[in-house]
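Shift notes (night). Ran Nucleoside triphosphate pyrophosphohydrolase while the centrifuge was going.
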Amino acid sequence: MADSMDAGTEIARLIDIMDKLRDPETGCPWDIEQDFTSIAPYTIEEAHEVADAIDRKAWDELPGELGDLLLQVVFHAQMAREKGMFDFADCAAAISDKLIFRHPHVFGDESRDKSAEQQVKDWEAIKAAERAGKAERGTLDGVALGLPALTRAIKLQNRAARVGFDWPGAEDVLDKISEETAELVEARDELGPDELEEEFGDLMFVMANLARHLKIDPEEALRRANTKFTRRFQSIEAALAAESRRPEDSDLAEMDQLWNQAKIVEKADK
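Came back to this:
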């Protein structure tokens, strides 16, 4: 494991490599052509790949995935430096300053003797002060548009809840889900595709709110559901392959039976 001096050396080497890749005369044509907009999707993708490695507990892969994510920061910082906007040092300084400012109980004279709940309240108060300094006056100002939709829904709802715009409990949200489901069915039967999409979005938004009231991360819950679906469908494929068949050679009834068998095996293994 590298010490802090080695880390500084390697970061400097990475910044130098990125500088050479972007050199207009001798750099890589693909890297030279990129801009903030074209690189942004890769930044999001790399963050998801970090999360995927963690979900799979693929600890041997995690350094490489984190390195890929770090490259995204260096790439954006290099493009900004070329435009005279900022550089990597500014990025590092910004997050260091923010961490110190948001942890007065560690770097200041505030007491560390507080509950996790109180710490969250203090954190939100500090962030509210930061938003005020950025002229973000509205309750929902500053919630990034580029967040995954479920995550952004939670953040919007949390902001609104802090000023009292929230259902009292999960039961109220469940009632709203029933209402939105009925409206979705009505849209399916009587309205056009735009209205149907709108009603589906409303239902998804309320489902995110239910997750918030149940203290569930909806992104994580859906990731786990995706993983479970993948695992069980692969069990179906394996069972059919044992008979030299593929899903296309089966039918829904048989595959549903194999699905239920996979569920039984999973429960027995727990």
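Residues 218-241 form the longest helix (24 residues). The domain at 6-102 is CATH 1.10.287.1080 (Helix Hairpins).
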